[in-house]
Design a protein that fits this description.
The protein is α/β, with parallel strands linked by helices. It has two domains: 199 residues, Rossmann fold; 175 residues, 3-Layer(aba) Sandwich (Rossmann fold). It contains 18 helices and 13 strands. Helix 13 packs across helix 16.
Length: 391
């Protein structure tokens, strides 16, 4: 089986992490494929694993713009696709002519109107509306669609009929760097200071400012807590800085550090005592899973997919209510034993998400979507032969 991967729409974040870990866990002998051809932007492919059975391609159209990537999909992708058994589209959009598409749904914003409305009537809201149209069009032409969670499937079903499409729910895994080496016991905080951590891009649906106000209220009540915010600035960064200035008042106990390199995140989790996650729109939040795998007790948004992911390993809050966030954090701040118990639950819950299992399920589903004998009359292609590996 030859797998062609259209990763041209994947730039950064969870989508890139998923593709890197998935490709790294796939092996031709174990998973019964011959080779993988990945089309991606250079900034994406540099983060992806190097293996003898994986070849990477790009061109000027892919590098140029979103429009250029669509032109490539429509006109220039046919050569590789003709030699493929399956066209895997983890970014969820492929407008080129193909009956081999297996798409993946990774972005919930296009499918949640209430979340899109946070962006007003500007360009960003229109972009998500267009993404929804293109993803629905891709899913309707696909032989299969992979969802990361049952919640995501239900939301897409509100926008289109799925009965005639082969589907599977295959969650992400967690990188080994995030697995806690300390079991369920975390060190006692120094000088009684509890470090709260929120890792996520700053965006309108992440609600970091509400977490800042909740931490300010905890400090007003006499609790010695600090908050570190880590994440790429996207939308709402000015609002976040304004609220930090109002609450922190120069004390440097609430700090926004900006984006951190992915390879340093495991250290951030290990330095923290409590993890906070206040998003209202996620498909399957890898960041939340990484924090849980690190053994952190979690105070989490009760919106969307979060209860499906965290289960009994979190205390929950309404991310739009500062009082609710305070109420969810209080038992973790006050009770060291509860923090230890919740950390143990986090590890147990997160241990079910593994990349080898994700790779096994993904390749199995891709194989189930292959059209039998499709390539009997297809002409040989030397670049595919060079990239293949003997079993």
């Amino acid at each position: 089986m030859t797998i062609v991967v259209d990763a041209t729409n994947i730039g950064y974040g969870g989508g890139r992490t998923h593709l890197a870990e998935l490709l790294g866990a796939m092996h031709p002998v174990q998973h019964e494929f011959s080779n993988i051809v990945v089309w991606a932007q250079r900034r994406t492919s540099q983060y992806l694993p190097r293996r003898p059975w994986i070849s990477y391609r790009t061109n000027r159209l892919i590098e140029h713009s979103t429009f250029g990537r669509f032109v490539w999909q429509l006109l220039k992708s046919r050569r590789d696709v003709r030699q493929a058994d399956v066209l895997f589209v983890p970014g969820g959009i492929h407008i080129g002519p193909s009956d081999l598409i297996v798409a993946m749904s990774q972005n919930m914003l296009p499918f949640e109107a209430s979340e899109r409305r946070r962006y007003g009537f500007g360009k960003e809201r229109m972009r998500y509306w267009l993404v929804r149209l293109l993803q629905v069009a891709t899913f309707r032409r696909a032989r299969g669609v992979i969802f990361l969670s049952n919640y995501a499937r239900s939301k897409v079903e509100e926008n289109m009929e799925l009965k005639h499409i082969s589907t599977a729910t295959i969650p992400h895994g967690i990188g080994s760097a995030f697995i806690s080496p300390r079991g369920d016991r975390r060190p006692v905080p120094r000088a009684g200071v509890l470090r709260l951590l929120y890792v996520s891009a700053v965006d309108l649906y992440k609600h970091q400012w509400n977490v800042v106000r909740a931490v300010g209220e905890l400090r007003r009540r006499g609790f010695n807590v600090v908050l570190d915010l880590v994440g790429k600035p996207v939308y709402g960064t000015a609002r976040l800085h304004k609220v930090i200035d109002e609450v922190d008042r120069g004390q440097q106990v609430i700090r926004y550090h900006g984006e951190a390199p992915y390879e340093t995140l495991a250290r951030e989790y290990q330095r923290a005592d409590i993890f906070v996650f206040a998003s209202t729109c996620e498909n399957l939040p890898i960041i939340l899973l990484e924090a849980m795998a690190s053994g952190l007790p979690v105070a989490c948004s009760n919106a969307g997919v979060m209860p499906e992911v965290a289960g009994d390993a979190a205390t929950y809050f309404d991310p739009l209510s500062v009082d609710s966030i305070v109420d969810a954090l209080l038992p973790l701040v006050e009770n060291p034993r509860l923090r230890s118990e919740m950390g143990a639950r986090s590890i147990k819950r997160a241990s079910t998400y593994t990349w080898p299992e994700c790779a096994r399920q993904t390749t199995s589903f891709l194989k189930s979507c292959v059209v039998p004998n499709r390539r009997e009359d297809a002409p040989p292609d030397s670049h595919q032969q060079n990239a293949s590996i003997a079993a």
